[in-house]
Amino acid sequence: MIYQRRMSRRAAQVARSQLAVRLGLAIYSSLCAAILLRTAILIFQFPDTVWTARWIVLASYPIVLPFRLVPAANRAVLGGATLADVTALLVLFAIPLLLIGRRSRSTAG
Questions:
Q1: pLDDT at residue 100 is higher than 60
Q2: Taking a C-beta distance cutoff of 8 angstroms, is the pair 42, 81 a contact?
């Protein structure tokens, strides 16, 4: 009976851990998609009359806002994309490199 209780606690911990990882991946992928779409729209200079393009640019503005505080962030780099937009794209896509490059602790030894 005690053994089953420990296993159920362990299963609950694993389920919570998996939920956290899946939720984190979902949030990260949605941020990457928003920034990628924003940058593509700005590079190809879609007109403001396209309501979906305008909506994506406005919805993704809070993600780019911290990068707009840097000097020269409003300088156009590619098409209509500014330095802040390209920097946000590069930073978001570089995050997995930090996680991959981190050394994991070995339990052997």
A1: yes
A2: yes
